[in-house]
Design a protein that fits this description.
The structure is a single chain. With 433 residues, the protein is α/β, with parallel strands linked by helices. The strands form 3 sheets. It has a 6-stranded parallel sheet with strand order 1-11-10-9-12-13, sandwiched between helices. The chain has a 5-stranded parallel sheet with strand order 6-5-4-7-8, sandwiched between helices. Strand 9, helix 10 and strand 10 form a beta-alpha-beta unit. The longest helix has 19 residues. It is globular and about 85 Å long.
Length: 433
């Protein structure tokens, strides 16, 4: 793990280290993904089965997961875990219901009605990875906001394991969410299938959900054919803490995101603090806690590749550096977090105070944990109901108001050399063609 001190390290070096972003600029992989998508577009189900047999399960015969298999997975799931899912789902739904915007109309000007008409997209596709771990929580965090938005059909794609079946935990979560269209399709081919549709997998309007580099590149390539929520990459956490923080808490929270790293991913776990004593204590705590974790190898690799402690001059500089990083998760473990909140400019999710540990936001509190990564919190926000909504502008003029606006509209049109635009006004008011 690298340790930098802003009193001795060049400012440019510190900022460069914090602003390191995951790159999708891999021409070879992108070419592979593009070929897969074009093949799926051309051959449909046949291509999906070929890729599934080659990369996932040699005996793959069917793409759709039968409802009986979904029901059986749900029935076999730990009842206490199902209870936890339901309670978490209620929190997620309650939070996202507060995000719902309303259509509106403005009639304050006589003869003019302006407004905004809001409606959900028709179909949403969710991608759920099926590699070293299953993430039923991510399914809840994507499907429930879509349902709150009013989306009528939600499709889930997840790769089959080496036994030919999608992970039962994902299937149980799908039933809890009310998602019945589940397909054993993974990788870039799943994104291509949802973007263009096949004989079995429906074409969707929005694709969301995390994945590996091939999934992210596929999402990038189909933007414009469909919408996406973002390109979520490896997980990140930045803890801004002062001398009042508990080093055990800080270390534990850094590890909570570091364990997403290793094995091909490169998660980032950062502490920025004005306290050298805290920095030293956290280093010791990290070593002690890693030694007790069953995923020790992953944690050690993640901290080696993406671990960083920055000793700043004061809390103000620490927050300034956190804004440079624009982290996915930002924790404020400082004496007066609310007093400093206005200084936070770039963060996907902000956890305030020592008891607001990142996992409670990930699993339980309610906001979606699908968040911007790789510095994109500078311009992206968390997944919300807005991702699944279409907003149409409404314009209604009567004749009197059009006559009043006509000279200005014609003047604009003629200044831009668009005579047909001007004619569309004149033909109504002067009978000219």
């Amino acid at each position: 793990m690298q340790i930098l001190n802003t009193s001795s390290a060049p400012a440019a070096e510190v900022r460069a280290r914090l602003s390191r972003t995951a790159s999708l600029a891999d021409a070879e992989k992108e070419a592979t993904v593009r070929a897969v998508i074009e093949d799926v577009r051309a051959r449909g189900d046949a291509a999906l089965l070929d890729y599934g047999r080659r990369w996932d399960y040699p005996g793959l015969e069917s793409l759709r997961v039968p409802q009986a298999e979904i029901d059986a997975a749900h029935a076999a799931c730990d009842p206490e875990l199902l209870k936890t899912m339901r309670l978490a789902a209620a929190n997620i739904r309650a939070f996202h219901e507060k995000q719902l915007p309303n259509s509106w109309f403005d009639t304050s000007k006589p003869g003019v009605i302006l407004g905004q008409h809001i409606q959900p997209v028709g179909t949403v596709g969710i991608y759920a990875p099926g590699g070293t771990a299953a993430y039923p929580s991510t399914l809840l965090m994507t499907a429930i906001p879509a349902m709150v938005a009013g989306v009528e059909r939600i499709v889930l794609c997840s790769p089959p394991r080496d036994n030919g079946h999608v992970r039962p935990l994902l299937l149980a979560a799908a039933k809890e969410c009310g998602v019945s269209d589940v397909f054993a399709v993974g990788g870039a081919q799943a994104i291509g299938a949802m973007a263009f549709g096949t004989e079995t997998v429906p074409k969707v309007d929005v694709i969301c959900g995390p994945g590996n580099i091939f999934v992210l590149l596929a999402k990038k390539l189909v933007v414009g054919t469909v919408n996406i929520e973002s390109l979520p990459g490896p997980s990140e956490i930045c803890v801004v803490a002062d001398g009042s923080a508990n080093p055990s808490f800080v270390a534990a929270d850094m590890l909570s995101q570091a364990e997403h790293g290793g094995l091909g991913a490169s998660s980032t776990a950062v502490l920025i603090t004005p306290s050298q004593a805290l920095a030293d204590a956290v280093v010791k705590e990290l070593a002690a806690q890693v030694a007790r974790q069953p995923r020790r190898e992953i944690l050690e690799q993640a901290l080696d590749e993406g671990g960083l402690i920055v000793v700043a001059r004061d809390v103000d500089e620490a927050l300034d550096l956190a804004n440079v990083m624009a982290p996915e998760h930002l924790e404020l473990e400082i004496a007066d977090p609310w007093g400093h909140l206005s200084q936070v400019k770039n963060a996907g999710a902000i956890m305030i105070g020592p008891w607001s540990t990142e996992p409670v936001a990930d699993y339980w509190a309610g906001p979606s944990h699908v968040l911007p990564t790789g510095g994109t919190a500078r311009f992206y926000g968390p997944l919300s109901v807005d991702v699944f909504l279409k907003k149409s502008s409404l314009v209604c003029y009567d004749e009197a108001r059009l006559r009043e606006a006509a000279p200005h509209v014609v003047r604009f049109a003629e200044a831009e050399g668009l005579s047909a635009h001007a004619n569309a006004v004149r033909v109504r008011l002067e009978g000219e063609r």
